Protein: Medium-chain specific acyl-CoA dehydrogenase, mitochondrial
Organism: Nocardia jinanensis
Amino acid sequence: MTAMLNSAAADYSDLVEGIAAFVKRKVVPLEDANRELLENPRLAYDEKGGYSAPVLDLFRQVREASAEAGYYAMFAPEELGGAGLGALALFSVWEGLSHLVGPGRPLPDQVIGHWTSGPSFLLGEVDPSLHDSVVQEVMSGAATVCFGMSEPDAGSDAWSMSTRAVHVGDGWVLNGTKQWTSNAAHAKYAFIWAVTDEEMRRERTGGITLFLVPTDTPGFAVDSVLRLFEHVGGNETISSLTDVYIPDTHVVGTLHQGFALALQGVSNGRMYNAGHCVGMARWALEEANRYTGVRTAFGKTIADYQGVSFQLADSAMEIYASKTMSVDCARRLDRGEQARKELNMVKAYTTEACFRVFDRCMQVCGGMGLTNEMRFVSGWHFARMVRIADGTGEVMRRNIANSLRKGDLAF
């Protein structure tokens, strides 16, 4: 396993195959044994809208088994026991996993530590005094984290955040509200960004610090779960911090320079989204191609009609373009290039292309495309959401245009 993770192989195909085998061996039996729980939203979520205790226990089982197998902490720093894998690996494993399982199956998503809830580069910035407790809990899959940066009035413009931290004695007191914080209802620890120097923040030269906050700290509260697409539950939350006190050892990274860590996290999220979207789109195209090849109308399969086949062809072209540009961008990042323009392009294009692919696949499959059985609607919901998450398409275009105006016209 270690040799596989340290391999410089360009496509990480062996790693993807290993993850697929793990899913079939460890995860699928759990899904089969708990199908009613996982597929009935009234059982999968509790009365407050978060995941129910039985579902959370299944998540933990998958995380811990994956950590033991060597997959869960792949993207954590090597000095903590991770593999320190880069952008191409991040894209490749999420593309492979998403292509394998498709939408609407929450257990397989627990196999790989997500950058907002599991082992990531952020653990390498945690104070050494917390390595034997906090870091090891997260690395093992026993505990999860959440990523609290966005606020009700500070989303795309994160510099406008209003959460404040004031130094008092040997610690800090935090006050503020965070919104769209994934996993906060279930996390044991929260990464919270707060303003620590107002003048630096106003000049956008710093002044924002990252803190590690145990979610059982007095004053930390999950106020509500945000439900999307009329679902009965969800994983996004609004959280509040009221006079939350934490010691100096819970400062993560460098004082006043936490915004750079947030940007690094969001960059990871954009490459993750690309992999997830390409894999999901591939899954959808294969399902639609199979169905239209056997469904008949007016004496022949519907795939024989250009109105159907051309929509599949358009989807194939967009998937190929999405994967090609994502791999190119990931390789640039792994070479040490900033590739800001390219990463913004990848985020915008892959998420929008994935949405179009699911929409076409639903259309060509007719009424069956709208059923829960085919799972296209679940994928369509996912694709619609990621066009906003980690930077909207409009913000990506703004960033691309800014790069062009600065003379970055190379490709």
